[in-house]
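Final report, Chapter 2: Outcomes

The project's central promise was a pipeline that accepts a single protein chain and returns its three-dimensional structure in a standardized token representation, suitable for archiving and comparison. That pipeline is now operational. To close this chapter, we reproduce one record exactly as it appears in the project archive, with the input sequence first and the structure output second.
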Amino acid sequence: MKILAIETSCDETAAAIVEDGIKILSNVVASSTTMHQKYGGIVPEVAAREQHRVIMPVIKETLEQAKLSIDDIDKVAVTIGPGLIGSLLIGVETAKTIAFVTKKPLIPVNHVIAHMFGNFLSPSQPVEFPVISLVVSGGHTELYLMKSRSDLTWLGGTLDDAAGEAFDKTARLLGFGNRGGPAIAAAAANYPIIQLSNNPIKLPRPLLYDKTLNFSFSGLKTAVLREWKKQETHDEALVNAFAYEVQEAITDVLVAKTIKAAEKYHAQSILISGGVAANSCLREKLSILNYQFSIHAPSPALCTDNAVYIASCAFFKSKPVDWHDITALPDLSVEENI
């Protein structure tokens, strides 16, 4: 079965064709990131206008890349939320139009839940259930229990800011603009190994020892700002020290909570997904647990927003809905098991 998927939840305009939920036939992503650089963040209206301009060329390129016509497609899938309302509408209305014209079944997909299905696209080792799935991105930090690809339960999530947002806000404070987590990771890598035990910057690990499976990173952002203001000079060495400690603090919490969930629910595998899942420090800390759990993470290219995992989720989990009944839902719950 070949599924054409469309993803426009934020500033990317993405389309992909995936066969049987695991074989990528094409994958096209057009990003407006550079357009937002002068603003220091995503401007929703700018993102939506750019998506309106490129959505049809992206879909056309997706079909051409797969050497298929729209008649060769069996079903259409689209992200309906959560996300930016203007951006979501571009994708949803385009998908509804395609479904109406072609009479193809249309499948609505929850963007956050779909992230984890990037792990089922040609995995290097089989995913054994039950699974604990950590979805960690700019807007979400959530933990799920998966007993199968279609049996999903939300366990906990962020009470305020997501891990990705903490990375992004810290990056701006340190002078990296909107380069976010990748800039923090690069600066952290430049922190000298001989100074690790003497890092002058010490930050909290929020909710590290509480009994829940929730997260909170708002206080960490405040702590970073407070420590930054204490420093008399802000040279490159200090920036690297801050980046290293921020990355350590965030990944320490993510790993600890994920392990706690895995042990509580007797998981066989751990999945990570979302933009922050591309972070090499997080991957390395989890890889140490490979003797205890089967650890899975998508390729870095499939961690950031794309339509490949939307198509995979649509195949394995979601069901077609009459196109008349589908609408963009910017506040769609991360617990919404559609």
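Archive annotation: The chain is about 40% helix and 20% strand.
This record, like all others produced under the grant, will remain available to the consortium after the project formally closes.
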